[in-house]
Amino acid sequence: MKDYLRKLFDSIIIKAVLEIIICFAAFVLTISFIQTFIQKATSLDTTIILLISLIITIILLFSILIHQFKRYIWRYPRLLWSYLHINNKYTITFESRTKLEYTKEIEYKALSNDLVEINGELWWTGDKCELSLLKSDEHTFSNTYSSNGHCKYTINPIYNVRRNAIKKYTVYATLEDNSLTMQPRHYIYVQRPAKSISLVLCLPFGVKVRNVKYTYKTKIGDSKHSIAKGKPVVSGGVKKGFVCYTYIIKSPKLFCEYEISWEWDNE
Which residues of 16-34 are buried (b: 16+ CB within 10 A; e: fewer)? Predict the structure, then answer.
């Protein structure tokens, strides 16, 4: 996990450190000027002048660090994490062309001893989104909200979650697309570190699709990068009778969007 986090933060840390070095160099020159000015304008002892310069340097450096911290937290607000994701699985299952089920299986690791809630939401481009179930013996639902294509919820641990504890929960939602307006894409935008993410699209034999693609893009507005064409797998077990496409992303990049897209075979 430490190596993984280091890779995630490398680019952010390097940028911040470079900016701090540049600012610090500018302030060193400023301090040198102030020190020279004090020496010429006063008859203070050299030790006192050095002490005054050191105090000014510390204050300015502290101001720079606070400014940079606020700047990057404002730009990336989710850097203040209280938990990390481990292995997450997001599944869309078509019961028919207009009736679907969405399943969100989450495994997370607490980073603090005061984790009291986990907020989540789902945006749906079809007609209706309705939260139906939470599967967990250690969590409860609260503040659930469903309106048209937007579902919001809060997950609350029943027991105190200690730091480094690993917990799981699953959220279910029922979806409808009677007007056939849904966008043929299943995606996740990574806002929190995770070891692995799986996007799964499952369709009954009667619902046909073509040109299934696995893609990603590094930022909003960026062009999509194709990874591979989806390979259908006939599913067994509880999904018997379905064809499933699974896009597994190992060590997903922070603030990137990963997607399964497709075209309807009858369009």
Answer: beeeeeebeeebeeebeeb
pLDDT tens digits, one per residue of 108-126: 999 888 788 888 888 888 8
For the chain, what is the largest distance between any 2 Cα atoms, rounded to a whole number of angstroms? 92
Shared domain for 142 and 253, answered yes or no, is: yes
Percent share of the chain, pLDDT over 90: 25
**94 and 216 share a domain?**
yes
Task: For 28-80, give the DSSP string.
Answer: HHHHHHHHHHHHHH----HHHHHHHHHHHHHHHHHHHHHHHHHHHHHHSGGGS
Distance of CA 107 to the CA centre of its chain: 14
Condensed to tens digits (0 to 9), the pLDDT of residues 207-247 reads: 889 999 999 887 666 667 777 677 777 765 556 788 999 99
Same-domain check for residues 110 and 216: yes
Q: Are residues 38 and 87 in the same domain?
A: no
Range of the domain at 68: 2-79
Residue 50 or residue 225, greater confidence: 225
pTM metric for this prediction = 0.69
Number of domains making up the chain = 2
Among candidate residues 177, 190, 237, 216, the one with its CA nearest the CA of residue 84: 190
pLDDT band at 197 (very low <50, low <70, confident <90, very high): very high
